[in-house]
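User: Fold this; tokens only.

Assistant: Input:
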Amino acid sequence: MSLSQRLAARQGVPTNGATPATPTKHDVLPGGGANRQRAMDPYAEIKARVHTSLLQTLGPTLYDANMDESELDHRVRQTLQSVIEEEEAPLTGSERGRIAQEVADEILGHGPLESLLRDPEVSEIMVNGYQSIYVERAGRLSPVPVAFLDEAHLRRTIDKIVAKVGRRVDEASPMVDARLQDGSPVNAVVPPIALDGASLTIRKFSADPYTTEDLISFGTFTKPVAELISACVRGRLNVLISGGTGSGKTTTLNVLSSFVPTDERIVTIEDAAELQLSQDHVIRLESRPKNIEGRGEISVRELVRNSLRMRPDRIIVGEVRDGAALDMLQAMNTGHDGSITTLHANTPRDALSRLETMVLMAGMDLPQRAIREQAASAIDLIVQQARLKDGTRRITHITEVCGMEGDIITLQDLFLFDFKAGVDETGKFRGALRSTGLRPQFTERLAEHGVGIPPGLFELERW
């Protein structure tokens, strides 16, 4: 997408070459939503006038394809100051600064969401309609006193986001997965399937990817568990990260991926690119949905198959949710040891059951035992993650896949979260991951790759 098209997408104008019409006050503040917004924001009318004057002053400059992003940002903010100085309403310096920032956010960013995206304490933004916005801070949900002007304003903002990654959302395709410039995943749902108006969910990424030390300090896992996981990744074991929505699987996947040696070639495959790998030799692949004619779709399964021809040392799949599970298991079983993936499940046993179901979705008439043998042979370790009632994200199981006994895949828990420790006076869980005293069977395989495990790592801990 050219710069002019990106700018057009910012303003919600046609990208087919038509000259954008100068918005009027009624374009900016339409209908009853504007009246409600005025009640919430006493500067709504002033911002509308400033916004209109700015567009009239800059005109075609906003759509100059030869102007880069930083130059455009400087030009907009410089002109914005001049326009606000001409505003006759009595305003203090702080009020002028606020209006300037909010109008700049509308033109250059994502409108009322921009202040939330800048807030480092906000980890998730949930727009439940143009007047209802919730955020997650420290694992707790709370409403925020910002809103869109109306449904059209929210839809324009959604269009800005999805257009930047070459996707679309409309009545014919009312669901979309996209991402922000920093990789933060975005999901949008619009009518007719969203009955109460468009809905938008943004899971914010930290500006600096979390490290092992960060997750230890958060209580996600303990130092002994970090040593074990690091050894498993360096020793080329296949790891499955399981958990519910919002449990922190992608963050944990990022941390696990950081243990991959820098001299290995990594191919990542995702529905919407979210991973933030620090290695240099990384090939990133992203699936593509159907176009408006219903063609051009490239699924995760196709990308997994293609990745086998790209000479990968490791294959990292952001999430398996369909028949791609079969190709992933085959890749793990055919010389691509050390692969990592995630899926949605509540327990390690449920993860294997769901994996079996997804293999059947590939359309292959495979017997149940064959599927289970493939899974037992391919997967070495399951890392189970959960978002607890206190809002924290914790790893609750570190489970080894031992093999088959009859028709059942055998598992043994190496570490379990101690829920029996109870909660403190603030409602936080006191427990942590504790060793079960069982020593894994894969230690010899790690030794073959020159990776050792501290001898006391699996000592039984009192519960």
